[in-house]
Design brief:
heterodimer, A: alpha+beta, Dipeptide-binding Protein, domain 1, Dipeptide-binding Protein, domain 3, 4-stranded antiparallel beta sheet, 18 helices, globular, B: mainly alpha, MetI-like fold, 2 domains, 0% strand
């Protein structure tokens, strides 16, 4: 059975397709042995079991948090959101869209019109049956002039939404988009009952696996299993208690003393000690999250690509990975597409620290004597200031002078990011190439944090979006990653792993790197050992 | 008694003006901070359009004077408004947190004040001995460490190693009084370590000061024991400065414990204030800021009244 388990492993790591897997197994004469459990993505040693009170300690919660799906800005309310709500589409641990409240979907040949068929007989926690009306209401909550939703910019491609009977929804887009179903898997787009307004969102009425019983922003949320849950074998805990624990030491102590079963954001400086503790498991998951150092390319001297190339070569990525992430990450190649993404350009040469090349480019730009201001605060990511200081030292080897400007954490995203010419930044990444590029690299993107405008890149972006042939798309996305690497305005030094810790009483399937905490779905996907 | 009543009346009048001035200062302070609630709540996901829609919804596009006027009008009518960030009524956000803050502060006060005064008396009684120096060194060391350090040490010993107290001080309405006290004992002890030294040193100094006066010498000559001199003659006469330092420390226990709240995950007013300042959530900042000012004003007033009552000379004189 070694071969079978090897194939299964390859399949789970996304290295072979489902078809290849089945062919491989058939060749072994084992076709009859394929159990759905092997392919379901939750193949595991023990059978999932119901029960228990699951307690999580999560960072980032604030007393100002709300459950309005438009402003889910902390780990705490994003996690709670998927305890109580479902999307039309779920992103699984292979970064593939799978049916959730939508049973199936279909597009027109130009990928401009999409039809989603809704699951029948799903009820909200208040007993109302979920229909097309609720879906349209939810999506419209994030669109339109008056919307205050964080999802507003990337729903701008939707021209029209209409119901097709009680259980069908048709989206009309301004341009073709092959990856449109992924968009509906975004954490903002959990389906709420039609007519929900303002404070009613705080009641958390959804179709999810848990019913919200108590919710105090920045403090605690408490939910009980939805006895009526439509998903089979999911949301297995009797009760889920979510605590906001901002202080890392407090989270660690609480896990150590058994007051919680699960914590996010393990302190990387002490993770080696944590790993030695009995009864605690540490998990590190690679996802799409990455650190970036964007330069505003419409300002001198960053408008000269030689300067950008010089700085890209002046950064020692290996050292940053080792010092800032303690090895919990992977090297970046100056584009935002992660190794877990479908069309990641594996063969693109890895950029390395090369002081000679950096010197060469800087000389070509004639900027050897310039002092580059690098703006940094730990609000960008934990260790951003340390990273900036390391980069300053690394650049010295190429004769480049960098001055690290320390900025306050408070207001970093509104006063420094996209305002200062060169700063530290963080991106959670996106499950698809199109979403990532459209959100931060397209010329007209609201979050184009480098003001970079590359004609070839922007043309490819639109063409690849509407292209349904995956070989052709692959070629286009490869080229775009290369353009980004050699002309783009941002340095992408590394991808950070999501490092979390849990009690060994818990059991889980493969962990998704789509978002932190198993794609923000720990409460739905995990269970207690018997 | 008449002049005590007059003092209370005069002070209450002044307090109203103080509170008004503080509300103006808080408003201007929050206005001066860069960014507003729309940008802070949306954070990295803010775009010009979304921020504009957000501002319009919250009426942040109106001039500051009009916004302050509207807030003041509601406030005078007893309406604290709603949080700009999540739309919850401010009174709902504040009530139970204020109760938590007062619970922690009073538990700490019940431990710390008698302890500090007792140690202060002992130190004065055995002054300049090894014992006196030991008390001073210990309490002064505690006050010199940052609060979070003492908190982590206590957690390490009592929660992680001995496992007798919880590291998270979580309380809810379903718990009875004893289990609530049990849950907050570690944060209480941390704060006790922080406030004891100040009160202890003041008690010691005040008593020693009084011990130098002529009537104490007289008492000694009469042959009264030293313990009795301290308890019956020196301490009652040194109450006034002690009351004042106790008031300042009580005010600190109400307004200054945000670090302890964070380390023990105890939901009090401090965390609420910090979160709302960072999100520029003005109505919440105003309400918590004013509660803190009222705590200070009230405790200072009580300290003055109590010192007057404890001192026959002040009780009789016309101020």
């Amino acid at each position: 059975m070694t071969d079978l388990s090897f194939l299964t492993q390859l399949y789970h790591q996304n290295k072979i397709t489902r078809r290849q897997f089945i062919t491989g197994v058939s060749a072994m004469g084992l076709a009859a042995a394929i159990s759905p459990a092997l392919l379901s993505g939750t193949a595991q040693a023990s059978v999932p079991k119901k029960g228990g009170r699951f307690k999580m300690g999560i960072t980032g919660g604030s007393t100002t948090d709300s459950m309005d799906p438009g402003t889910l800005t902390s780990n705490m309310n994003q996690n709670l959101n998927w305890q109580i709500r479902n999307n039309l589409v779920e992103i699984d641990h292979h970064f593939k869209p799978i049916p959730e409240l939508a049973e199936s979907w279909d597009s027109s040949p130009d990928a401009k019109v999409w039809k989603f068929n809704l699951r029948k007989g799903v009820e909200f926690h208040n007993g109302k049956t979920m229909t097309a009306e609720d879906v349209i209401f939810t999506i419209n909550h994030h669109r339109g002039e008056k919307s205050t939703s964080g999802a507003k910019p990337y729903l701008s491609s939707i021209v029209n939404i209409k119901a097709d009977g009680k259980y069908g929804v048709i989206f009309e887009l301004s341009g073709g988009s092959a990856d449109f179903p992924f968009l509906l898997g975004d954490y903002h787009l959990g389906i709420c009952p039609a007519g929900t307004q303002g404070q009613e969102f705080e009641k958390g009425i959804g179709t999810g696996g848990y019913v919200l019983e108590a919710w105090e922003p920045g403090v605690r949320a408490f939910a009980k299993r939805n006895p009526n849950y439509w998903k089979q074998g999911k949301a297995l805990f009797d009760e889920v208690e979510t605590l906001s624990i901002v202080d890392t030491n407090a989270r660690t102590n609480a896990l150590k003393t058994g007051q919680i079963h699960y914590m996010d954001r393990v302190e990387l400086k002490t993770v080696h000690l944590m790993k030695r503790m009995p009864g605690i498991n540490v998990t590190a998951t690679t996802g799409t999250a990455h650190y970036t150092i964007p330069m505003l390319v419409d300002q001198t001297p960053y408008n000269d690509n030689n300067v950008r190339m010089a700085l890209k070569h002046a950064v020692n990525r290996e050292e940053l990975l080792k010092q800032v992430l303690r090895g919990y990450g992977e090297l970046g190649n100056d584009h935002p597409i992660a190794p877990v993404n479908q069309f990641y350009a594996k063969d693109l040469e890895q950029r390395r620290h090369d002081p000679d090349k950096a010197k060469f480019y800087m000389k070509k730009a004639g900027m050897q004597d310039h002092v580059f201001n690098l703006h940094a605060a730990d609000a960008a990511f934990a260790g951003a200031v340390d990273a900036a200081i390391l980069i300053k030292e690394q650049a010295k080897k190429a004769g480049i002078n960098i001055n690290v400007v320390r900025e306050p954490d408070d207001g970093y995203w509104s006063n420094v990011w996209m305002k200062k010419e060169w700063c530290m930044c963080y991106w959670g990444g996106r499950p698809t190439e199109d979403m990532m590029f459209s959100v931060a690299y397209a010329a007209d993107a609201s979050w184009n944090d480098t003001h970079w405008k590359n004609d070839r890149f922007n043309r490819l972006l639109i063409d690849a979006r509407a292209e349904l042939d995956s070989e052709k798309r692959k070629k286009m996305y490869f080229e775009m990653q290369e353009i980004c690497k050699n002309d783009g305005g941002t340095i992408v030094p590394m991808y950070n792993q999501l490092v979390e810790a849990s009690s060994d009483k818990l059991e889980h399937g493969p962990i998704s790197g789509h978002m932190a905490m198993d794609g923000m779905r720990t409460a739905e996907r995990w269970w207690f050992k018997s | 008694m008449k002049n005590v009543l007059f003092l209370i009346f005069k002070r209450l009048g002044a307090s109203l003006i103080t509170i008004f001035v503080i509300s103006v200062i808080i408003f201007i302070g929050v206005e001066l901070l860069p960014g507003d609630v729309a940008e802070s709540v949306l954070g990295q996901s803010a775009t010009t359009e979304t921020v504009a829609a957000f501002r319009k919804e919250l009426k942040l596009d109106l001039p500051p004077v009009i916004r302050y006027g509207a807030w003041l009008k509601d406030f005078i009518q007893g309406d604290f408004g709603t949080s700009l960030a999540n739309g919850r009524p401010v009174s709902e956000l504040i009530t139970w947190r204020l109760a938590n803050t007062l619970f922690l502060a009073s538990t700490t006060a019940v431990i710390a004040i008698p302890l500090a005064i007792f140690l202060g008396m002992l130190a004065a009684f055995y002054r300049n001995t090894f014992f006196d120096k030991l008390i001073s060194t210990t309490t002064l060391s505690f006050i010199s460490f940052p609060e979070f350090f003492i908190a982590y040490i206590l957690i390490f010993i009592f929660a992680v190693k001995l496992n007798i107290f919880p590291s998270l001080a979580i309380i809810d309405d379903n718990m009875n009084f004893t289990s609530k006290i049990y849950a907050i004992l570690l944060p209480s002890l941390t704060l006790t370590c922080v406030v004891t030294a100040h009160m202890m040193r003041q008690t010691r100094a005040a008593i020693i000061n009084v011990l130098a006066s002529a009537y104490i010498e007289m008492a000694e000559i009469k042959g009264i024991t030293r313990l009795r001199i301290i308890m019956h003659h020196a301490f009652p006469n040194s109450l006034s400065p002690v009351i004042n330092v106790v008031a300042v420390n009580l005010a600190y226990l109400i307004v200054g414990v945000v670090i302890v709240e964070v380390v023990f995950v105890y939901p009090g007013l401090g965390q609420l204030l910090v979160d709302s300042v960072s999100k520029r959530d003005l109505p919440v900042v105003q309400a918590s800021g004013l509660i803190f000012s009222i705590a200070y004003i009230f405790l200072n007033l009580s300290a003055d009244i109590l010192s007057m009552l404890s001192n026959p000379k002040l009780r009789q004189s016309q101020i």
